[in-house]
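Lay summary. Proteins are chains of building blocks that fold into shapes, and those shapes determine what they do. In this project we predict the shape from the chain. Here is one chain we studied, written as its sequence of building blocks.
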Amino acid sequence: MKIAFFSSKAYDHQFFQQANQSHQREMFFFDAQLNLDTAILAEDCPVICLFVNDQAPAPVLEKLAAQGTKLIALRSAGYNNVDLKTAADLGLKVVHVPSYSPHAVAEHTVGLILALNRKLYRAYNRVRDDNFSLEGLLGFDLHGTTVGVIGTGKIGLAFAQIMNGFGCHLLGYDAFPNDKFTAIGQALYVSLNELLAHSDIISLHCPLLPETHYLINTNTIAQMKPGVMLINTSRGHLIDTQAVIQGIKSHKIGFLGIDVYEEEEELFFTDHSNTIIQDDTFQLLQSFPNVMITAHQGFFTHNALQTIAATTLANIAEFEQNKPLTYQVMCPH
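And here is the predicted shape, written in a compact code that computers can read:
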């Protein structure tokens, strides 16, 4: 069983080779992202393994199917980068890793909140320059603040539990309420409008769907409290970046922390330090003193990478043995 890995890095080699000791599959690792030009790399590979920024629209899937691909194994939870209808029409199976380490992403979210609130990035650089002034580093107590959690699945729930430990008031919004959320302290489900209006901190933990695309836009930002902290460690396209920039300029958004970006495909997971980044919107975001950006590293822990590799290879084993696919992604009707 040959497996072609796209967008692979050294850590993918490390963790998949470790997990493969009990499977002994033939694995080919490519640094290139999947697209119409690079699909040829997977010729004669029944399985391809994709990550979040690989693109599998209809033309790419048609080329893969013609080359002999039968299974698309996503080593991520999200699958919005795959045309599921075309995959189904071509007889291609799609599997993913629905849960690898919700704590990894939840803890990274809290890290962004703490770094933004207490200006840790500024403080670190000041002390290295022997500048011990506290001017401009003023923060606020998290205890007693109201935190809005949009999306209360496994990651949102883990995040809410951590923030409850800080003594925060929790408001949740989800199309599918989770009883475990309301079991946390005094956590309450409210309408989206109520959450936006009353939250000091808003954190996004929902999937990217047609209904959630640009969930954060000019209208929803207008409903937020002045100086709100907005955090996104979920999907880049949940946020209309231009609307957020205007929100920052107007001081409606007092802090922005993002681990994802709507145009990240050309930027993240690659070293651009010796090039000129052409994305003016991203560069403008970086220029604001109250914005902190990390490059989609929320998932990046030993625990998560071990689970991703083990689950992905288990998915492939089920396919190879003609077993029901536990984590198959079906085309929505």
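What the prediction tells us: The chain is about 35% helix and 15% strand.
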